[in-house]
Amino acid sequence: MKQLANIVSKLSPVEVIGSTEISISGLFIDSRAVMANSLFVAIEGTQVDGHSFIDNAINQGATAIICQTIPTNRRSNITYIRVDSTHVALGHAASAFYDNPSEKLKLVGITGTNGKTTTATLLFRLANALGEKSGLISTVQNQIGKKVIPSTHTTPNAIELNKLLKQMVDENCAYCFMEVSSHAIHQQRIEGLCFTGAIFSNITHDHLDYHKTFKEYIKAKKLFFDNLPKAAFALTNADDKNGMVMVQNTMAKVHTYSLRSMANFKCKIVEQQLHGMLLNIDNIEVWSRLIGNFNAYNILAAYATASLLGFNKEDVLTVLSSMEPVIGRFENMIAPNGVMAIVDYAHTPDALENVLSTVNSIKTIGNRLICVVGAGGNRDKTKRPVMARVALQGSDLVILTSDNPRFEEPADIIADMKQGVDAPSVGKVLTITDRREAIRTACLLANSGDIVLVAGKGHETYQEVKGAKHHFDDKQEVAEIFKTLLP
d(Cα 374, Cα 413) in Å, to the nearest integer? Predict the structure, then answer.
């Protein structure tokens, strides 16, 4: 139980009706989950307005309400706290309710279009390998040391975030590495958190269904750095054209990393093969099992962050050299007949282009690259033809298929993608709506030495169709088909 007065101490309310000297058992934004003696925060969401459920919350047992508009039919035994923004209020209230956990460990956030999951996971693995128990909040999964907690969002809501961070503190974690999505920044889900550092990976075409314009997308990412405290560090990719834009108004100490230009932390790819690459990081050569320019950036960002956190640089590089690829990120398998498949989460034009470029740079001349790719439903439609165009530019054969169609028809999504196919390229494109059949066809069409890239879903083990999630795992599908491909 927490005193309401302590929970709302940092809110600067516009109006308070009722007593704040009451005990609160829980904090909720879903009226259906409310329990006795709890605090309900009425959030204006993208789909529904929590203010419509205040009565429901009270009937469930809420004794205090944080809202932007006090109901006309308010009840005498309820405390109402009116604020300018319940999104902001929720972050501070959640932090206070869970004893300000972000102040009790070193919290590092990673934002950008691509690379967030890999960089966060590398840092999590790295810190734990070097003897510092750590937490991870990511798209793939959340972890506290060795304990895995399923992930539903790239960045959870403020209540879940602080609850996770509190668990990490209670289990003696020294660090937490978390992905910070543009949605979370814009929706102020990270409000009230105290960051030790922040990393910017890159920014490319994505989420324009939500942000509407690329300028607004950049603005959302930049806000993360604008709000960093003076004591924090801001690490940015100097090779991204918006890298320095991100940190131009931050109070944090700015550091840069680069593969191509002057920076505080430098890396060069010395050699690249299908099973790894040799890097030169700050004049030290290190082998990595990860592949591709994009992974060189991820590794460098992890190295730079670990250095800024005070870890020994040689120890960091030693551990990084032993790390396996992150789940669903450029994971490869080889069939008995010599066909290789690569499963990757690439679901933006830039990410797909990076993966295709990497595969083409290391595959044997004369062998083909077959790309299986789709696009998600009820998301940014403008990138669909671009995805097809990028796939065609980097592949010998492209199979357009279903991804997570959600509430759209897969055939309609594919039709949007085909707008990016020019007349000379029509012969390089197959359309197979069923994703399982598309993967099977690609593998059967491939010859020894050919590479099949299955892009878009990576670590996901489901397909989302008409509001339901059905089991579907790209790696599992490839493995089953490969069993039939005899030498």
Answer: 8
